[in-house]
Task: structure prediction
Amino acid sequence: MDKKYKVPIGPVHVGLKEPITAWLDLEGEKIVGATVRPGAIHRGIEFMARDRNPIQVIYLSERICGICSFSHVIAFLRAVEDAASIPVPPRAQYIRSLVLELERLHSHMLWAGVACYTIGFDSAFHLGMALREKVMDVLEVLSGNRVNYGVATVGGVRWDVTPELAKTVKQMVKYYKQEFAPFYDVVTADPIAKARLRDVGVLTYEEALRYSAVGPTARASGVRCDLRESSPYEAYGDFGVRAVVPQDYYGKAYGDVFDRFLVRVHEVYQSLDIIEKVIAGLPEGDIMWEKNLNKVLAFLKKAEGTGWASIEAPRGDDTHVVHLKGGDENVTWWKVRAPTYANAVSWPLMFRNNELADAPLIINSIDPCISCMERMLATDSTTGARKVVTRAELLEKCREKTRRLMQNGGR
Amino acid sequence: MMKLEKYLEILPRSLWVTTCNSGSCNGCDIEIVATISPRYDIERLGMKLVGTPRHADVLIVTGPVTKFMKEKLLRIYNQMPDPKAVVVVGNCGASGDVFYKSYNLEGPVDRIIPVDVYVHGCPPRPEAIIEGVAKAVLKLERLRGDLQKAGEGQ
Result:
């Protein structure tokens, strides 16, 4: 085929749960090039945070993304605690680790289900979603909410793990150890599912390193990277977490969608082990550094400094940087680097030489959280041309504004 | 206040639902996915998520509408055949909620398209979403009656 086509996918598409646009260059059915345009649901969260104090920003950071909401909260809180030097009691650290792992469980099960749905394997999708309800119940018992938990606060957590809850969590672990294997077998033993997932959207080891893939996407390519192993935070130092890479289980890492599926499934088992260890080793003591919210706010108002934190969210490392200024109640600035932002760069590589029918599967395979990664994109309304502003252009625009302000006498 | 069972008694036929994420955090979207999963199983009520607005009776909108998505949301709404109903799921689509001060929002949704049912919660529980869609049935029935009358007059 000599003729080339340009096919747009998105922003609203059946295979995508969130708005993102990808333009695919096609030769027949084969994808030869891809352009990805994010920015459809940019809400300016970092900007909004500048009008709010750190306690209010907790609830804003929770709503960066509804699936990895607790990861964003913990990354933000660790950055604030780093900036203001606030210690977290050990029991609170254990409870935070517990909720982080529960969140990883539900996120990976959701992904595994949606991956099956994308290839049209609806019975496996419903099986995965039925399994996922158990961990949602545990989260609801713990926090009262199914999605945005509101568990953590500055210097600790708001809800304690009671003996009854510990019992519920143990039952959940037992349930999953029995019930998760059939789901895993149904998908991995199915020849059609394997044919659809194997050798699709390949990202090699070198490419994963060069394009800074993170999380399960990088691990599926054989890169041994897991922040819970390399720089343990909260209580993870006590559990001896090892990064899950396919070569440890199957001898070889292909870096395709099937490997991404396997990595996530094995991480479900790993999370179950961690949850068991958390419940067994839960230390006694306080769950908050300071119970009086007004005192916390007064302390944060006086605090000065920049803090950062990087944690392993279900999709990869999530980095938050926060600056607090002494005497200012609000967050001075806040920077979020969500894992999808790093992973989306490797999309065009994964698309190469695949069929058009696999495009939604490949987009879903990095478990994209579009709402996490939205960034600014300038639109020239006079010509209708769309372009992403480069750093040099921004610098030029910035200087232009300075000149304009100088001419207008500072207005 | 009518009970949920009453709404379902008058449910005349299967409702097909389509969704549009206009800038939400995903929280409502995963609850919509949970709604079609076996625990809540809206298919037992004949409801179904469809891929295109051209097949749908009800549009579920999540999220405060961003500048980019405003035009897309309007296009999706205009593609739906009459009679149609719009359900807003989540607080941010109803009022802006935590995103109320953003510079990039055109919403809430009712500034862009007419909304029939609001489902509150951040995110609402799947039961609430089912109730919201069931409430849209009343509006659809009324619209269908109006359309029939208009047809008889001609």
In short: Residues 340 and 368 of chain A are 6 Å apart (CA to CA). Residues 376-387 of chain A have pLDDT under 50 and may be disordered.
